[in-house]
Amino acid sequence: MSRFHHKHFSATKLVLFFCFSTVLGVALVANLIRESFSPSHIATSSNWVVRDHVPVLLFQNDSAIDAVPKGGNAEIAKKNGSKDLLPATFADIPAPNWHWEAMPSAPVPRLDGYAIQIKNMFYVLQGYRNLDHVHSHVDVYDFITNKWVDRIESPKEMANSHLGVATDGRCIYVVSGQYGPQCRGSINLAFALDTKTKQWSSLPPLPLPRYAPATQLWRGRLHVMGGGKENRHTPALEHWSLAVKDGKALEKEWRTEIPIPRGGPHRACIVANDRLFVIGGQEGDFMPKPGSPIFKCSRRHEVVYGDVYMLDDEMKWKVLQPMPKPDSHIECAWVIVNNSIIITGGTTEKHPVTKRMILVGEVFQFHLDTLTWSVIGKLPYRIKTTLTGYWDGWLYFTSGQRDRGPDNPQPRQVVGDMWRTKLSLK
Ligand SMILES: *[C@@H]1O[C@H](CO)[C@@H](O)[C@H](O)[C@H]1NC(C)=O
Ligand SMILES: *[C@@H]1O[C@H](CO)[C@@H](O)[C@H](O)[C@H]1NC(C)=O
Ligand SMILES: *[C@@H]1O[C@H](CO)[C@@H](O)[C@H](O)[C@H]1NC(C)=O
């Protein structure tokens, strides 16, 4: 399935393709996330060196992962019947190396965490510690003192990952998401945190539960669209909005809005210059293994894309230039600086031969004047679900799941590392 076909994916094709891909999916069912989360696996099968403050994985042993071909160059070449070695980092785009400074790590490591910046305060929410443990609290970093300064407990009934989040500059809105660890169900509950009083309140529930819907506050309305449907895999197209002010709903029910042309979870949703942008994402996601009492995650066919959609006064979706590469898991990996959107890391399409997941290590710039993209720099490593902030000339990011080392872009360790670099945009 070439990437170029996906734009013309009709619903019927999707159904047919899904049937086909389920067969394919069986071959892909590998508990990749568990492997990448397992601390014992890391401890017993790797040698670490520290280079420029970045722990670099020099050797690693893939033997714990089965069901798909292993990731080494030799094996790729063998499978391809060729002596030529494919670079394992085939998907990286050349970009300037940036100098990154290590800052205090987050109190806990996080995958699929969320973040909201309000002035100098950076609120980091929920997320997985590992596949069997999820967080239910907010950690707060102060960009002025460069310290983790606070912890706020979340409502116990609030989702733990795959949220939709937005802010009005004082309150943080949290809509739907996955409740619990592994690949458990999604819920439709919505909440608001008043960051001044540190009190949570409830909002009217979304009409349906969603996984990681694109969410943003625009013209006084909380917009929620796309995401994954109740089975965690099927892309949703529905789009709803709710009038809100100061953390309170001004309406009893969500209003139906124009559906998004392409659905799925893990996209960046951004309001800039009074326009709403939806960037990147994917169709499909891990699903609970049928009959598993713990809703054990199993891998399914996914298509990652770099599509960019925009809504303006006309309230019709406009298709803009796509990202330089397909990119997903970037919900909170962005900031707006000097009429640009900056996006850090993510996941891209799987490796064409090994079918391995491939992380993204580039920093992208979307120019809001020309509506075009550039690749402007590199992160200290490839990483997905980063939480990104900007303060006083510094670009910050923390948390996510990083790669296995410079030569291996597959996901491994879940981290809470915090980094910053001086940003200088053109
Ligand atoms: C790597 O895997 C091989 C084969 O599964 C095993 O024999 C070897 O001991 C492993 N090496 C390390 C360092 O774990
Ligand atoms: C497979 O081998 C061919 C012939 O050597 C080469 O051109 C191609 O790039 C290889 N593709 C992959 C995915 O390894
Ligand atoms: C943003 O623009 C201002 C004014 O031109 C400039 O001084 C500043 O360095 C720019 N910021 C970045 C991060 O490039």
Automatic annotation (TrEMBL):
Keyword Transferase carried by entry: no
Keywords (A to Z) from UniProt: Signal
SUPFAM superfamilies: Kelch motif (SSF117281)
Spans through the membrane: none
Signal peptide: 1-25
PANTHER family tied to this protein: OS08G0128000 PROTEIN (PTHR46773:SF3), PTHR46773
Name of this protein: Kelch repeat-containing protein
Native source organism of the sequence: Stylosanthes scabra
